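sanity check this:
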Amino acid sequence: MLSNGVAPARAKFDAVLTMAPAGIFKDRGGDSVPSKLDNPLGRAFLSLIGYYSEKSTMLVGGHKMYDAITQQSDNPELQKVFGLDPTQFFSSFVLVTVHMWMVFHRLKSWEGSDAKYFKQRFYIKYQNDIESRVYDAGVQTGAGSWTKKLENIFYSAGLGFDQVLRGETDAPMTAIIIRDFYGGDESKLPFAELLAKYITREMQCLELTEQKDVVAGNVCFTPEACVVAGEVCAADEIANPTPSAPQ
């Protein structure tokens, strides 16, 4: 995690979070067709089995959307700027979770069978990935208990954020962040404030992005956040170099 120094670089990161919001459309490419089926007969077969169906297209879009989330959330410099330890699995979980909630919030007004299908499949993708990451983190026994705890955090944070936005609580977003993501540690308030600013701006950017592009997964969360986070971490390393191991 970062020290309290490198004020200029931190100020630059804060400036990124206060930039005017803009749509975050990015063409992440179309469906990939297996090379052996990339011919008229093969495509006819794919069409026959529903490869190009609306549900299949939504499934691909959900996977692309999740890829956009993990691309941003797994950035170690971004995790450090938010006071998280990139060597710990929970740090990625925190950022993946807040991005998931932001997407669900963006699609809250989308209803019907298609919306239900997309949101269910999108969440299943998240669940499967989190479970895989739990095992990758070395948890071999009690993995089910861990994933249940993480699921509870997901719902607790999401409900808390929703209540804040609806004005159903006097608690600010930072209080939800500290409670669910920083273990109730009030000393993390400066980091919680940064994360709250980030969430607020990315939500505004998602609102400015067409729903069809969100559902298709054609988005890229603000890349400047990761770029400037890298500059902050580099400045911190210069100001506070890691001690060399004794020879």
Notes: Residues 242-247 have pLDDT under 50 and may be disordered. The CA atoms of residues 37 and 184 lie 53 Å apart. The longest helix spans residues 113-136. DSSP finds eleven helices and no strands in the chain.
